[in-house]
Amino acid sequence: MRVLMTADAVGGVFTYALELASGLVAHDVDVVLAVLGPVPSREQRRRLEDARLADVVERPYALEWMDEPWDDVERAGEWLTELAEVEQPDVVHLNGYAHGALDLGAAKVVVAHSCVLSWHEAVRGRPAGAEWARYRTVVAAGLRGADAVVAPTRVYLDELARLYGPPPAATEIPNGVACDGLRPLPKEDVVLGAGRFWDEAKNLPALERLRARLAAPVTIAGDGAPLGRVGREALADLYGRAAIFASPALYEPFGLAAVEAALCGCALVLGDLPTLREVWQDDASFVDPRDDEALAAACRQLLHDRGRRERLGRAARRRALSYSRERMVAAYLDLYRRLLTTAPRTRPAAGALS
Fold this sequence. Notes:
This protein is of the alpha/beta class. The protein has 2 domains: about 1-175 and about 325-340, Glycogen Phosphorylase B (Rossmann fold), CATH 3.40.50; about 190-320, Glycogen Phosphorylase B (Rossmann fold), CATH 3.40.50.2000. The protein is built from 13 helices and 12 strands. It has helices at about 10-25, 40-50, 70-85, 115-125, 135-145, 155-165, 205-210, 230-240, 255-265, 275-280, 290-305, 305-320, 325-340; strands spanning about 1-10, 30-35, 55-60, 90-95, 105-110, 150, 170, 190-195, 220, 240-245, 265-270, 285. The strands form 2 sheets. The protein has a 7-stranded parallel sheet, with helices on both faces. Strands 9-8-10-11-12 form a 5-stranded parallel sheet, sandwiched between helices. Helix 1 links the parallel strand 1 (about 1-10) and strand 2 (about 30-35). Helix 1 (about 10-25) packs across helix 13 (about 325-340) and helix 9 (about 255-265) packs across helix 12 (about 305-320). The protein is globular, with a radius of gyration of 20 Å.
């Protein structure tokens, strides 16, 4: 089987795509990874080199959620169409919406990781304005053009249906993480946060404000964060030693960082979101992400109650182990195989990118 997969290097989509692609390669699937948007970092390039993919190709086209991206989105579509003609994939796996509307000569899977409209409601507390009308149209067309639409949670699939209309052949496949290098270490009374500090949805400034409310250290790693971006091995060490991983997110369709932290035995303090409730059920402590005192109280309680903290860490780790890369890969392989028996090799475009 040959799969043409898109990705970008901005955040969690890259981690997801590389985990899935690496797992597919282990099952003798040839994966061609087409990276759009900002160029990958040095560490991302190293990880791509280690992944034994059939090929990695890049184009710095703006992503569909960026400001005025539409000329680049169209050019990216032309490039992907040409790439599909050359590579002749059995499946095109799109980690974005817009290009689901194209005829790419193969079964198309569109995977929903997030979207501007749901982000805007969760983070800004109101629907996105008229300036996002074209985005709404393009995303809806991309979803309609897919042979299958995947999201990591049932809650998020329901959000897609509410915002864009019921997607075709919708299915839930939780994201997965390989355990390599992620393990508990001797724990220290540290609260750890990780992610893009500038991303309003991550709400990491709430952890910065937490410093004044706790006696224990608060460490925040990531782009723009006090500690800055750290490498994968250094981050695994931070996860391994931190007693608590806190993510007071305002919006999070799945949350790979929490899974990585849980694999390292961290007790989780998470924003009380329906998606995160679905992912973690009773194996995390949930707080109103807009309530700084509630966040501080939850962390303070776990720091003081070592027994509960360790029980919660063990429970989170058990659940994180269920979100394995192998389980995710098996689910996608099953989906691909079903599509190869049911989806037409080519299909009419579901709508223009304009």
